Amino acid sequence: MRVMMILPALTEATSPLFRPIKYSLFPPLGLATLAGYLDESDEVTLYDEHVERIDIEALPSPDLLVLQPYITSARRSYEIADHFRARGVHVAMGGLHVTSLPEEAAQHADTVFTGPGEEQWPLFLKDFRDGAAARRYDSTAQRTLAGLPPVRRDLIKRHLYLVPNSIVVSRGCPHHCDFCYKDAFFEGGKSFYTQTVDDALSEIERLPGRHLYFLDDHLLGNRRFAEALFDGMAGMGRLWQAAGTVNSVLQPGLLERAVDAGLRSLFVGFETVNDANLAERRKNQNIGKDYGAAVRRLHDAGVMVNASFVFGLDQDGPDVFDRTVEWAVEQGIETATFHIMTPYPSTGLWKQMEAEDHIVHRDWDLYDTRHVVYRPKGMTPRQLEDGYWRAYRDFYRWSNIWRGASAQPGRHERMRHLAYAGGWKKFEPAWDMLIRSRRTVRAMPALERTLAAFGGRKAA
Ligand code: B12
Ligand code: SF4
Q1: Which atom of ligand 2 is nearest to 183's Cα?
Q2: Residue 247: helix, strand or coil by DSSP?
Q3: What angle in degrees, to the nearest 10, is found between the helix axes of 223-233 and 197-205?
Q4: Contacts with 317 (C-beta within 8 Å, 6 or more apart), sequence order
Q5: Which ligand has the nearest atom to the CA of 175?
Q6: Is 319 helix (H, G, I), strand (E, B) or coil?
Q7: CA angle 396–400–403, rounded 5-degree value
Q8: Whose CA is nearest to atom 3 of ligand 1?
Q9: Residue 132: what are its φ and ψ, rounded to 5°?
């Protein structure tokens, strides 16, 4: 059987003019995971439009086309799907956006899947080979990562990515923030589960080099699993980055074990400096937590912080941008990611906004967390978009990078701050040249050196 898999990209990612480095960071792990279920005799090709151009007219017709649309790439995904269906190709679609809006996706696909793919995808493959594929497969309660075949990393064009060693060892998250994709995606079954520690360690061992990036929503979410994983990784000489909550950082002992296993930077969802927003958005695990203490704990352990913030929550007024940037700079946070609150279809936030008639349009292209797609309560849409862009500009001003560096506890940490924060945002044009040279992976040694030279816990 000839199978073609495509991760379509939103328009900006394929722009001939300028492509932000973020699109060249991570390979398409979801599709490479599904490819693991194919037979050895199947012929499979995997394209990622974030890093390569595809001319759909020129591509041959496979027996099966597999597409994974995100909300912002839904339009492009449907365009590709319609093209291949017109040629008589069977098109299968699944993933986050399809799970949010299966009826919409079904207008462009022969088969749609809701929820994680591991359970229904093998059933579909059997049905498809038997000539009896159904129109829709819904993931049910029996979710597990046990027996997961190895991710088909041989299909990933490693040289096109800055972080080819991306890895996921769990699915979902134990929390229930109502703006997050998670509860809607995992509805009807378990919403947080992990691989066995042995399987996760084997997957890590298969990856060359030192650097790893865990894309798990919350790698520290199951303490027992996380501790066993970190103990297994200690001594491997890995340097890695991951995501975790404020709460998990403050837990005694866990962070230290992660650092001893090679943790060097953590993506943390602070979301808002307005405490009143947290309860409204069910971000319960952050309520009453000392954000400053979490940052200090990370810095003292030699871990850089990538802080994530959302603007436009109900309690936010026009002062929220300056307050957030000021707080982040004062704390010496190395990198920050800002978002305009975006109600993804079928989340709790979406349902609330629909009921209040606050959603202003359904142009999914603009659901990219940089546009205002709803009527905010505490400011105008214009103030919100302008404030969002200003926050980025202000946070990454050299004067603020210097101020952030001087908030660091020691000389080493200050150097690291300058190397990382400066390198990340200030050299976007250099990143762009590297992407165009189609050798993005060449930047990896520099990233490894930065993480190795400046990170880690001082001996007790
Ligand atoms: C890595 C990542 C990226 C990477 C690239 C994506 C990539 N290469 O896969 C980059 C940095 C480019 C990126 C960008 C953006 N991202 Co992003 N990203 C992620 C992240 C952290 C991990 C994705 C991943 O690898 N998951 C692990 C794999 C194993 O899971 P998976 O891909 O979902 O695949 C499984 C299932 O979905 C399903 N499945 C998927 N496809 C199919 C197809 C079939 C046929 C079947 C049967 C099953 C199936 O089976 C797979 C195995 O279980 C997720 C968070 C998350 N936990 O998923 C956010 C996430 C997907 N991103 C999100 C967003 C909002 C964005 C941006 C808009 C952010 C921005 N402001 O720029 C952009 C735009 C993306 C676009 N292309 O349009 C949202 C998506 C919301 C939505 N409803 O679509 C998420 C969920 C983050 C969040 N919590 O809000 N992202
Ligand atoms: S902690 Fe993060 S991943 Fe978990 S539900 Fe909240 S936003 Fe989603």
Answers
A1: 5
A2: helix
A3: 40
A4: 378, 379
A5: 2
A6: coil
A7: 145
A8: 26
A9: -135, 40
**Taking CB atoms and a 6 Å cutoff, what residues make up the pocket around ligand 1?**
7, 9-10, 13, 22-23, 25-30, 33-34, 50, 66, 68, 70-73, 92-97, 100, 113, 116-118, 121, 168, 180-181, 215, 217, 344, 368-369
Pocket of ligand 2 (CB under 6 A): 173, 175-177, 180, 182, 217-218, 245, 269
Closest approach atom of ligand 2 to CA 173: 4
* d(C-alpha 177, C-alpha 117), whole Å: 23
User: Which numbered atom of ligand 1 lies nearest the CA of 370?
Assistant: 71
Which residue blocks in 152-253 are alpha helix, DSSP H?
182-185, 197-205, 223-233, 246-250
pTM: 0.93
How far is residue 83 from each of residues 78, 93, 133, 352, measured CA to CA in Å? Answer: 8, 14, 20, 36
Nearest ligand atom owner, CA of 3:
1
Q: What is the pLDDT of residues 201-252, one digit of tens each?
A: 999 999 999 999 999 999 999 999 999 999 999 989 999 999 999 999 999 9
Residue corresponding to tokens 């709790």 = 348
List of domains in the chain: 2-138 (3.40.50.280), 162-454 (3.20.20.70)
342: pLDDT confidence band, cut at 50, 70 and 90? Answer: very high
